[in-house]
Protein: Peptide ABC transporter permease
Amino acid sequence: MSVRYRCRHCEVEIGTLPFDADDTIRKLHIFELGEADDYVEKDQHGQTTVHCICEQCEDSLRQYPDYHALNKWIQ
Ligand SMILES: [Zn+2]
Structure:
């Protein structure tokens, strides 16, 4: 099962890993992002989704850091 990367802010799909890298993802991201469970989600079909941030949202955060507290500001 592949691993999907999705932006946690605008929900755009950033990319897909064509193999099940669930354990690797958790090890990779746990130090960088904090609690892996907040970012890595596995659904009932075994599909793993990593909620990260896309370039566009990263730029917005850099420009408007006040919005950082908001989980979602792009409608
Ligand atoms: Zn985004």
